[in-house]
Every structure is written in C-alpha cells, then in structure tokens.
Amino acid sequence: MAGTKLEILALLMNGVLELYGRVSDMIIRNASNVYPSVIEVPITKHPKVKDVRVVSVPDPASVEEICACIILKEGQTTDPEEMKTYCVKIGMVPIELPGYFIFLDEFPVTTTMQKVDRKKLRLIAMEKLGLPKES
C-alpha cells in the first residue's frame, strides 16, 4: 500500500511489545541491520544528553555509517571522543557504535506531525560532516 509505514516490534517474554522503529529508518552497516532506537536509548541515558537521534550517512567502506545527532542539556559540553568512550563503556557492540557524533541545538521537525524529520536531519548531518550530497 502506498504511504504505508512498516514498524519493527518484538514481543518480550513478559508480554510487552517493544517498538524498535520503522523499517525505513534501519541502517545497513557492514551487511548488518542496525535499528536507531537500539543506539538512541543508551546514549539518551548519558548525563549530559537531552535528546539523540541516529541517522545513516553514506560511507564507501560500510555502505552506511552511523551518525548520532545529539542535543545536549543546557550548559553542558562534550565532544565526539567522550561520547564514543561512553558508548564503549556501556557495552555498545562495535556494529552499533556510531562512527560520527554531531551536536545540534535542535532537530528539524515535520510540519504536520511535529516529529523529528529524519530525512532533513540526515542532510544536516552530511553537511556538518562535509560529506557530498547524494545524487
């Protein structure tokens, strides 16, 4: 069906449905499927992080590279190396470890639903990283 969005869900042993995200948001990295929420949830627990969204950016070596787009809490500062160290420390597996971390003041949102616009966010990430626009 045109316009249909497919969601990835898991039924947990305790009967709870856990939402992983949309199929269209899935990142393919080194022939593995990586769901953004699996990366976003643990990064959001960092004490300096207010919000995070993960998008893919082009990478010739791994098809898509993971970019964590982070909004920090007011008055907080950090850098990509600190975030990478945190991700390793909490046990994030290498296939899920973002290759890039960028810091933003806000996320672009859709005009209709006021949800984060991942397509626009991806373009912002590519621009900040100096990556060429895809044709």
From TrEMBL:
Keyword flag Signal: yes
Signal peptide feature range: 1-18
Keywords (A to Z) from UniProt: Signal
InterPro entries named in the record: AMP-bd_C, AMP-bd_C_sf
SUPFAM superfamilies found in the cross-reference section: Acetyl-CoA synthetase-like
AMP-binding enzyme C-terminal domain sequence ranges: 39-111
Protein's name according to its UniProt entry: Medium-chain acyl-CoA ligase ACSF2, mitochondrial-like
Natural source organism: Branchiostoma floridae (Florida lancelet)
